[in-house]
UniProtKB/TrEMBL annotation:
<feature type="domain" description="Sensor histidine kinase NatK-like C-terminal">
    <location>
        <begin position="330"/>
        <end position="432"/>
    </location>
</feature>
<feature type="transmembrane region" description="Helical">
    <location>
        <begin position="131"/>
        <end position="154"/>
    </location>
</feature>
<dbReference type="InterPro" id="IPR032834">
    <property type="entry name" value="NatK-like_C"/>
</dbReference>
<keyword id="KW-0472">Membrane</keyword>
<feature type="transmembrane region" description="Helical">
    <location>
        <begin position="68"/>
        <end position="91"/>
    </location>
</feature>
<protein>
    <submittedName>
        <fullName>GHKL domain-containing protein</fullName>
    </submittedName>
</protein>
<dbReference type="InterPro" id="IPR036890">
    <property type="entry name" value="HATPase_C_sf"/>
</dbReference>
<feature type="transmembrane region" description="Helical">
    <location>
        <begin position="175"/>
        <end position="198"/>
    </location>
</feature>
<feature type="transmembrane region" description="Helical">
    <location>
        <begin position="98"/>
        <end position="119"/>
    </location>
</feature>
<feature type="transmembrane region" description="Helical">
    <location>
        <begin position="204"/>
        <end position="225"/>
    </location>
</feature>
<dbReference type="Pfam" id="PF14501">
    <property type="entry name" value="HATPase_c_5"/>
</dbReference>
<keyword id="KW-1133">Transmembrane helix</keyword>
<keyword id="KW-0812">Transmembrane</keyword>
<feature type="transmembrane region" description="Helical">
    <location>
        <begin position="12"/>
        <end position="32"/>
    </location>
</feature>
<feature type="transmembrane region" description="Helical">
    <location>
        <begin position="44"/>
        <end position="62"/>
    </location>
</feature>
Amino acid sequence: MTITQILSPSPLQWTNIQIMLEALLAGHLVALKLQKRSHYWARVFITSLLSCIIVASIPVNQMGTPSVLLSGILLYSCALLVLTVALYACYRETAWTVLFCAVAGYTIQHLLSALNTLAERIHAYDALSSLFPAFPGLRIVTYLALLLSVYLVCFSTVCRPARTLGHIMVENRSMIVLTIVAACADIALSFYVFQLFLDYPSSPFGVVLALYDALLCALLLYMLFELAINRSLKERASTVERLLDDQRQQYAMSADIIERVNIKTHDLKHQLTVSPSVQNLLHDYESVYHTGSSALDLLLSQKHSEIENLGIDFSCMADGQSLSSLADDDVYALCGNILDNAVNALSAISPVSERLLVLTIKTQGELLLIHEENPFVGSLAYADGLPLTTQENENYAHGFGTASIRRIVENYRGTLYLHDRDGWFYVDIAIPLPSEDPANAR
């Protein structure tokens, strides 16, 4: 392709460039929350420019020529490949994750193209132009409104719900296979509809074809993100379960260590060689927390130093015996996650005098009630009843604390209500008490 052709593209080449820009916009919309490479906006500009030049260089024959279908397949395949490479140059992700975003973006663009064709076939643009003849640019404005509507609907209905569950990961075999199948389906669908439009250039059947094309794109997009959401939910549940198992193992080891220390402490108190000051220290150690729940006592004893070092004013009114219907390791994990989240939020509070933490555990009627409240900095967004993480550099366990809390509460057929008001965050848990058998509900 010569410089002159690049500077003055033909109408068909302008169409290719338009398709590429639409696909790039959709692809970046899907990949919006992925980890970006350095000089992100410069990369976006350069890759967009190069992508347009590449697709404009693809030879496209006029309608009705023998090789038009071959050039059409070449265009659709090349557009998807260029989109994938462009996204990979902008985002620091695996090739499969980038391919997923590229296929999803290409499908969104295909949906836009189908709806645009449908509008042309039903003469919607011509009707608007006749109604408002004083606005020569109305067709462009209407097209941009359609583009904005399609992309916003796709973002709010499929893209955004998938991202609220966390990072889009495409590593397992089923996701990879579906992504490849979706890519082939996109190209095949484009080719098939293109062929039908050649066979029926002005037939009313074209309206049905455009609507059929749009519905298939919407279905394909739904399948892509539905599998991604389901996979994320399974990964999240598996992670929560592993974290709970780790916490239960930690409780078992800590309880064993504390029991041994208590035995040694008891023996030391009865040795004549121990000075009165050491006797007082041992007494303080034995009497830090006595709530009636050994698991809660162990947890509070472990958190005591951290809470004190951060200058947190900790108010704990806990009837540990009310926790007897819960397994000890669940008590340890449940209350541990509540306190960990609160301490993490309070560490950002300044001045230190405003670091307040209230924990209340009691029974009321046939319910075990657990309430926690603490101030926090910033604002919270919620997804599926749980607050979204606000940390830029989240570690492996971050963001799963509240999910672990809900998993334990649901295991005992309880309810969890997380909310915030006026700069305070509240945790309210209600678990029905067993009517007869006080054994664990698990």
